[in-house]
Write a structure and sequence with these properties.
mainly alpha; 0% strand; rod-shaped
Length: 137
């Protein structure tokens, strides 16, 4: 192949001469550059179309998945329309109220302890008022 190209160039050089050979080389170079630019543009368009197809397919799959998920959740909610039995809710309410009472009692005890500590003198042992009586005696 290389030998054939060299032979063609020698024949063209003899037929056209050195000046016209240079003009032909410039025109040939411009033509090759234009062909490459067009080829790159065609490849880029084909690549962009391929990407667009993949994006559209993924969007369609996502929509189908969303529709299936919505249908499944709607079916689940249709199945759960039955109310809870009264026994369960009554037990829960009683437990909740009992917990609230216990918490309120603990808060009251803490408040009473704080009040006792604030009213007791600093030298009193264990928050009692005995320390002041011992000093006066």
């Amino acid at each position: 192949m290389e030998i054939q190209l060299v032979i063609v160039l020698i024949i063209a050089f003899i037929v056209l001469g050195p000046e016209r050979m240079m003009d032909l080389a410039v025109k040939l170079g411009e033509a090759v550059r234009k062909v490459r630019e067009m080829w790159e543009e065609v490849r880029m368009q084909a690549y962009m179309e391929e990407i667009n197809k993949k994006v559209l397919e993924e969007e369609q799959k996502a929509q189908e998945l969303d529709e299936r998920t919505e249908d499944e959740t709607a079916d689940e909610y249709d199945e759960v329309d039955e109310p809870l039995p009264d026994v369960v809710t009554e037990d829960y309410n009683e437990d909740y109220l009992n917990e609230e009472l216990v918490v309120e009692e603990e808060k009251e005890e803490l408040e009473e302890d704080e009040h006792r500590e604030q009213s007791a003198p600093d030298d009193a042992p264990h928050g009692t008022s005995e320390g002041t009586q011992n000093k006066t005696d």
